[in-house]
Amino acid sequence: MSTGYLLLDRPQARKQYGIPRRGGTRPSGTMVVHTAEHTPTLIGPDPSAETVAEWLLRRTDAGSYHSLVDSDSIVSLAPTHAETWHETSTNRWAVGISAAVRAAGWAGIPTERRHAIVRNLAEAAAQHARVLRDQYGVTVPAVRITRAQALARVPGFIGHGEIDTGRRSDPGVAFDWTLFLSAYAEAMALPAPPPGPAPSPSAPASGLLEDGMWGAATARALQAVFGTTVDGVVSHQWRSRHNEHLYAAHFDRTKTGSQLIRAMQRWLGVSDDGLCGPGTITALQRRLGTPDDGVISPVSSVVREMQARLNAGTLR
pTM value? Predict the structure, then answer.
């Protein structure tokens, strides 16, 4: 008999949920908001969530959510009491909800359809919040929480990129948190959310966290300095061992390159093809006085030096 949850009702190449949650952990009301990095359909019926859901059934590595939405549907993947594999730090107590779009692509979605996606995401959150309220006595307020609060199992909402810093950037800098929280509050008959974003104690007072990881925050700071579009994404990169730990990169096979990398290459005096390859990395390392092996390491000395100079306002 059908349960109404796709992951419980359909076989998977790799099991994408756990019941009970590991260690018998109860869901805390922490909710993590994701994007599935899928190019959405922009006109007509929107099969995006269903397409991603079918892919989740076939994937052979761990990766899943509790709910997945597009502009005209909500796919229920797993019940609130189940554990899904959406965010490594908080899986045991958090709920993961995702929109079948790209983190860097919100601006390209027509307004009406974009708002429908965000409202469906809010409704998906409300579906789980009602279970948390009725079965666990947990109220999830219409507020954003910090990384420290998410790790402490505080109820509220956090973006995947805010908890998995340096590796992820979703739901993206253009995600409409105001609409999302307002729609969620309306669905739950809660007070209107407070204005403004949640504070982030992860970064030092001077700005960037100097962690040696070139993630979305570092990319945004560089984009502001070099005068390119500020979206936290280093677009159209060609993956290699030299740059695979450029965590803000979107890798594809177009070799189109990034505006940011092209601007940095002109500053460094190397060929400006927009691709962050070994030549560009070596030039950056030499400019900043760090070991010049042409590789961005998982925790990189050249990235840490770059972050320190960005914080000090002395990169250029």
Answer: 0.64
The model's pLDDT over 170-185, given as tens digits with 9 standing for 90+, comes to: 999 899 999 999 999 9
Nearest to 94 by CA among 169, 23, 151, 172: 151
- Going along the chain from its start, the domains and CATH numbers come out as 6-188 (3.40.80.10), 216-312 (no CATH)
Give the pLDDT band of residue 203 (cuts 50, 70, 90): very low
Residues 6+ apart with CB under 8 A from 186: none
Instruction: Tell whether the model's pLDDT for residue 200 goes beyond 80.
Output: no
Q: What is the DSSP letter of 108?
A: G
What is the full DSSP assignment across 124-176? HHHHHHHHHHHHH-----S-B--HHHHHTT-SEEEEHHHHSTTT--TT-TT--
Q: How far is CA 141 from CA 6, 31, 181, 292, in A?
A: 27, 11, 9, 48
How far is residue 29 from each of residues 159, 270, 281, measured CA to CA in Å?
Answer: 14, 50, 42
Q: What would the DSSP string read from start to end of 19-39?
A: SSPGGGPPP-SEEEEEE---P
Lowest mean pLDDT segment, chosen from 182-191, 209-218, 297-306: 209-218
Distance between CA atoms of 16 and 169, rounded to whole angstroms?
22
- Using CA atoms, how far apart are residues 32 and 43, in angstroms rounded to an integer? 28
**Per-residue tokens: 137:** 């006595």
